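Predict the 3D structure for this chain.
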Amino acid sequence: MSQAALMHAGQYLVGIDIGGTFTDCVIIDERGAVYSVKVPSTPADFAIGMIEALSAGATALGLELPAFCRSIAFLSHGTTVGTNAIIQNRGAKVGLITTRGHEHAIHIMRGSRGYTGRDIRKVVHFPETAKPAPIVPKRLIRGVSERMDCFGSIVAPLNEDEVKHAVEELLGAGVEAIALCFLWSFKNPAHERRVQEMIRTLAPNLFVSCSIDIAPKWGEYERVAATAFNAYLGPIMSGYLKRLDRALSELGYRNSLQISQCGGGTISVERAVEAPLLTLDSGPVAGVTASVYLGGIMGHQNVITTDMGGTSFDVGIIYGGRPAYTFVSNLNQYDFFLPKVHLQVIGSGGGSLVRVDAEAKRMTVGPDSAGAFPGPVCYQRGGTIPTVTDAQLVLGYLDPSNFAGGRMPLDRQAAHDVIAAYASKLGMDPLECAAGICRIVELQMADIIRKTTVEKGFDPRDFVLFAFGGAGPAHADVFARELGIRRVIVPQKKAASTWCAFGAAVADVLHIFEHAEILPTPVPASHLNGVLARLEADAKARMAAEDVSEDRHRFEICIDLRHQGQINEVEVPLDNSRLGDDYETDLRARFVTRYEQLYGRGSALQGARLEIVTLRLRARALTPRPEFARAALVSAPPAANALRPARKIWWSESRDLVRTPVFDGEALQPGNTLDGPAIVETRDTTVVVHPGTRLRVDELGNFDLTFGASQ
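Done. Predicted structure below.
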């Protein structure tokens, strides 16, 4: 289907993002107007929360839910169902069939047990660490006789009698899914495909996960872990997505449901059912996708994205208009292959719990969260432990009568009382204690941003920072200053709290195809072009199966290289879909530039032999995008209707309560400028403007914060 036909099929683009605390819905109409709504998530069944979000969106438009669903041209959904299933150990009962003699690779893991560089305390005190609960217990692993060599030649034929016996044993043990991962199967998939056929004959409805479909590259442990995780999620995700797809069809939605994926785009619901692993972190990644889109409109090619919600704080990098990517992910201590937008995540959100060690006079914030239920103490749902949201309320940053647009009144006195009890243990004033809670979480956020940028070879001072999520704009002023960043953008006023849902709505369809082959340079261009042609043919076949017209196709080619004999691989993007005969000089120059950006000037071995490791094609299908109108800038001060009653707010700069002006952010006009201290409120977001900071509403409707010399 072409872009024009897609938009003709309906008049709304809709993105939905399910978080740990709230489910967000963003609706974009034909004129480019953006509507956003937010409802509590429903962990018992996230599909309920999604339908409730759609219902709230329909109400905002003045429509009945079925009429709204019939008018949707494109619906994309970011979900945390898979991530939560892994974290909470609620996945399927999985059996594993692998090459005989290699049954324990998934239990041996790597020597670091998944802790390398991620938790310095556990690295230093490694003997105290333990391996995680196994995805597949040893009793459910079967080895069968077969063997391919590294060239894809059959060394030992597949013993089908052993396969049949292994499958029958696993079925007898009650497995709900089977993972298949044979050595070197990505060089020759014949044995895996044959076993897949046999399982479908013996158990037609059983979920089967093949390594050649999930992670077709070398790295036995990471490949088997990815395949097992996919099987672990398969029955849960497929049941959830099929129920959701059916419910939407019954409500009148006529187009294909798209699911946000971790690579920075969307996939069809059918592909998500086959490969649910691709949905991990899909919600936060959509925030990066939205920031790439808006950054391109604004002319910002280098952006740090920060998403602070109720549970976590997610940081991404956009450099040269492209997100930073990673190809090995870590979850629950397991390293596994997954090509995705690189995010660093810490447990610092509005619901992060505060703990006090009275003897050590020490206070910590996070990583555990109060979640949506019971939530912070001020929610009046039974919470007893203070959170960052409680601290913001005590300091005066939040209006207790206007939180979430007035839909959820907050109990300031309850928050004050519980923080006062903590303050007494530390010998502090309650306001100082609340300020300390915010300061701790802000420094934690600054630290993870510093780590994310520096580890990728970037200086945070060279970037613009985008702050979104329900809680992010309240803290961005402080952690941006801490890093020396001079400019913060809070995107699209009230849409900032639902920015990941906006990203889902504007994301392109994306499929990633890889070919893994170690090729020492020089490599004939004809060989590489042949591989790229096969990847492109696979991409076109996938797009055709999803009824995507060729005028929407866009292909991006990248090559992973390394110094021969080393393990540090660098992804190098190419400008063209094919290589010329003299490609190597330019490819080497690009590799050296990126390598030295990552590892330091002079670290690349000039003239050394390189190895091509992976050829990668990102196949995109363009989707309709909203056009943001640029408004004329006014030079007058904010209008009277933008003023709200001033209130006393505790500022760390003055260490005192100061009567501070408060503004209705949705009533501010492009060109309006405010100098801190000030508070700017939208329905779901509060922007805290500290002394020395200037906020300006730009022509696109974003809040633009600058400090110091950049003002």
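The two ends are 47 Å apart (CA to CA).
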